[in-house]
# Entry
Amino acid sequence: MNSQNGYDIEDLSLGMSASFAKTITEADIVMFAGVSGDNNAIHINEEFASSTAFGGRIAHGILTASVISAAIAGRLPGPGSVYLEQKMRFCAPVRPGDTVHAIVTVKAIEVDRGRVTLDTTCKVAGRPVIEGEAMVRVDSRVKRESRAVAAQARN
Amino acid sequence: MNSQNGYDIEDLSLGMSASFAKTITEADIVMFAGVSGDNNAIHINEEFASSTAFGGRIAHGILTASVISAAIAGRLPGPGSVYLEQKMRFCAPVRPGDTVHAIVTVKAIEVDRGRVTLDTTCKVAGRPVIEGEAMVRVDSRVKRESRAVAAQARN
# Structure
């Protein structure tokens, strides 16, 4: 663990998993429209959205994906990790009131490069709404301790 | 064009490009922390963030990526398109006050499947901060007109 309670690369093993869940409310959709600039009618206009195949407003795909960011930054690998890549496939719509569970699972570890690949899935009521993969940079306890020893030797 | 002023698949050609720009403010970062649940110190704690290699708070990567969503949904292919996939690589940090330009460019068109692949790049002051690719489903004017004719024939 690092000083912020995040995992070091030496703490990780294949198959380790964590999750974070968040209900996507109407307020979240309105605020996300504001921060993104994406004011598409399917997200903010119930009259229009109810006339489409979706039958009502749906959350922005990237709003749902943002719960993955919370799972990675807050749980696994946790604070101190740096987000390098994210791939995602939007499989099903998310509606206001749905609770999104982001599940992240370690699928590859490159100790030398300090990089970890995670499977990233978001589910609503047990059904996938996003499937994808993230790559994250994680610090190394061994390298951090070597840096500290070298710094002491210089003083 | 469809009834919402979005492009049909027949309107698209390789190399077509559009952009949307948004300044990422402190308010955007605070609201994104709320909607995502990602309250990592690097985004919301200036005292901590200024002690790291970043030298201060940075925007969440997925907040920056949300500007791509606005470019796709609002400009190219525009309203009516359905987001299927997004891949992204975070290349450089974005700071409060930076203006993110999301540039989307048509790189492949599958008319039969109604799918378009777009190159998606976000730049700040001309330098890439996100590089990636999106796949989007787009309606077809030809198929829509056939559906209308078939519906009339049934009446």
